[in-house]
């Protein structure tokens, strides 16, 4: 057990095995110690939507409509044609993703917002990486906001993309520098 490690520092760890025959060859590794941000307890740095708890994200109760968790097997058969992804990023029909229908009955200005769990992070800089699929004639904007929790609930715009980007999953990497505990919202 390694204790007293501090983020964001690097450490050299040396291990020497001992057996009844004596000491073995030493191994040395450099460990870069950072805190991931994709789970509330910061113990896991990856979030997939396979679990129906959607990684601790919640629907904002003040928005106009909600994101839905679905896969190719649970898609609404009445979904607008030529919109949305046929599968999740894995390409398998069983893989889940979060989806919003931006066609009718949606109107300009309607918002569907997901809110992340609160991250009690201590590092100053992070990179939020996620996949998005923006396909269809009525695509609006996808926005990522960082909600600082040490000064009330102040939202800072971190990333935005608008319009049809084709029937393909793409990846975004967004640098953020929260000033303390924070949440991410997407709409």
Automatic annotation (TrEMBL):
- Sorted alphabetically, which SMART domains does this protein's record hold? MAM
- List the record's Gene Ontology CC terms alphabetically: Golgi apparatus; plasma membrane; side of membrane
Which Pfam families does the entry link to?
MAM
- Principal localization? membrane
Which superkingdom, per the lineage? Eukaryota
Which SUPFAM superfamilies does the UniProt entry name for this protein? Concanavalin A-like lectins/glucanases
Localization of this protein: Cell membrane
Q: Where is the MAM domain?
A: 45-187
Keywords, comma-separated and alphabetical: Cell membrane, Disulfide bond, Glycoprotein, GPI-anchor, Immunoglobulin domain, Lipoprotein, Membrane
InterPro entries named in the record: ConA-like_dom_sf, MAM_dom, MAM_domain-containing
Its record classes its membrane topology as:
Lipid-anchor; GPI-anchor
Chain spans, region Disordered: 73-92
Q: Where is the composition biased (Polar residues)?
A: 73-82
Cited PANTHER family: APICAL ENDOSOMAL GLYCOPROTEIN PRECURSOR, MAM DOMAIN-CONTAINING GLYCOSYLPHOSPHATIDYLINOSITOL ANCHOR PROTEIN 1
State the name under which the record lists this protein: MAM domain containing glycosylphosphatidylinositol anchor 1
Organism listed in the record: Jaculus jaculus
């Amino acid at each position: 057990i390694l204790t007293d490690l501090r983020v964001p520092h690097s450490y050299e760890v040396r291990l020497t095995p001992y057996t009844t025959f004596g000491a073995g060859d030493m191994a040395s590794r450099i460990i870069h110690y950072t805190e991931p941000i994709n789970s509330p307890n910061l113990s896991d740095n990856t979030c997939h939507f396979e679990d129906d708890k959607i990684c601790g994200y919640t629907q904002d109760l003040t928005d106009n409509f909600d994101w839905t968790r679905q896969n190719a097997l649970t898609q609404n058969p009445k979904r607008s044609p030529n919109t949305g992804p046929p599968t999740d990023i894995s390409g398998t029909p069983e893989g889940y993703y979060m989806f919003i229908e931006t066609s009718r009955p949606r109107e300009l200005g309607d918002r569907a917002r997901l809110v992340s769990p609160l991250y009690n992070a201590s590092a100053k800089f992070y990179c939020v990486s996620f996949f998005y699929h923006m396909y269809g004639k009525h695509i609006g904007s996808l926005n990522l906001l960082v909600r600082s929790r040490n000064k009330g609930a102040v939202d800072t715009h971190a990333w935005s993309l608008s319009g049809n980007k084709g029937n393909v999953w793409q990846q975004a990497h967004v640098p953020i520098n929260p000033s303390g505990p924070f949440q991410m919202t997407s709409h």
